[in-house]
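Project standup — Tuesday

K.O.: blocked on the structure for the chain from last sprint. Re-posting the sequence here as requested.
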Amino acid sequence: MASLGYDSFFPASHRRRVEVRSGGGGGGYGGSSRSRSVFTSYSSPMSRAAPHYSLAVSPMAADLEMSKVAQVSSEMMAVRTAEKTQLQDLNDRFAGFIERVHHLELQNRALESELQVLRQCHREPSGLRSIYEQEVRQLRAAVEEACGERQAAQERRHQLEEALRALQGRYEEEVLAREDSEGRLAEVRKGADETALGRAEEEKRLDTLLDELAFLKRLHEGEITELQAQMHYSAQVSVEMKVVKPDLSAALRDIRAQYERLTQQNIQSAEEWYRTKVGSMADTTARHSDDIRLARDEAGEFRRLLKARDLEIQACQSLNQALERQLQEVEDKQSDEIASMQDLIGQLEDELRTIKNEMAHYLKEYQDLLNVKMALDIEIAAYRKLLEGEETRFNVGGVGGMSSVFSHTISSTPSFGRPVFSVQSSLTSGTPYLLGTRLLSSSSFSDDMLTSSTAQKARASPAKEEEEEEEKGEEE
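H.V.: unblocked you, prediction finished:
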């Protein structure tokens, strides 16, 4: 048999170099012998090479060796049985792992499909976000327009208030002017009343003078009549008595002339006085009537102006009240719309935050599943390599049994380590150790992969958090 090496499967601490001799001819161990080096899976705690000796063995020693070989072979059978049971257990565990891998692959495919659906669903909010942003921009533009209208309405309100204050000032001035005009009108009325009273007194006095003049005329006519009668009687007496008497006609003529002159003077003076009084009264009446007419015209004009100002003030007040009501309605409407938009934006932000959290959770689960899948793939690959190695070794070891004798001589006393065993038994006995080493290496490799993936996730999580904070900042 050729020498078999298991350096690739066993570490240095579990290897020991021994000399294997195969006896040739008879039952002895003489003759030509060839040495070959093999590695066993059993080693002493001390890893050192023992000295090798070639000695001639007696028949008693051969019997002792055969009994020990039989004992060792029985032990090897027990070991092989235990190794076979352990291999069956490992095969069962391997089948369970394969079923678990299939189950996890199904779960992985389901999660991948769910992740794809979620990605497709989460691609849609980009359009919704643009729609919401456009709606928010329109609402902000409407709010700014409403604020501009409100500012214009406030400016118009200030202008109307200034106009109202100006009109109130003019109204107060007109009220003062009206009171002044009313005072002047009262004075003019008082003067007119006094003028009317004076006119009435003058008219009464004129009537009295006219009555007195008529009385004096009548009296003068009566005196003239009496004098004429006396003159006629005296003329008759003088004619009848034919007596020379004094000339009374001249005296009567003189008296008559004096009375006529006096009457004429009185009439002239009365007429002049009457004309003077009537003219002065007419001038005073005309003057006062003009003043009264002017005062009445001014009062009418002031009344018209006052009524116009009252109407303007009422119109401004009604317009101011209407504008205030409209401004209050616009403010209430805008505040309600802004509150509703803020609530809607808050709800959308909460939904977006919830979706991001769910997405991060799903990504974390997906990453965990990927890590588990990677570890299982690594473990499956290790098992596959082990199975391929086992199949290759079983195919190589199918030629037949082989007996080997290990002789170790220490201080002239021969000691036998592991006597005769077949290649198949050595391979099966090396299988648990090989499987353990492979499992250990695969588990350590999977642990390293999990550690590296966890570190990458930890490095990637701050970047995600920074991106989320930047997105929140842009949304705000």
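K.O.: great, moving the ticket to review. The chain has two domains: 13-80+365-475, 138-337. The beta strands are 17-21, 36-39, 405-406, 408-410, 413-415.
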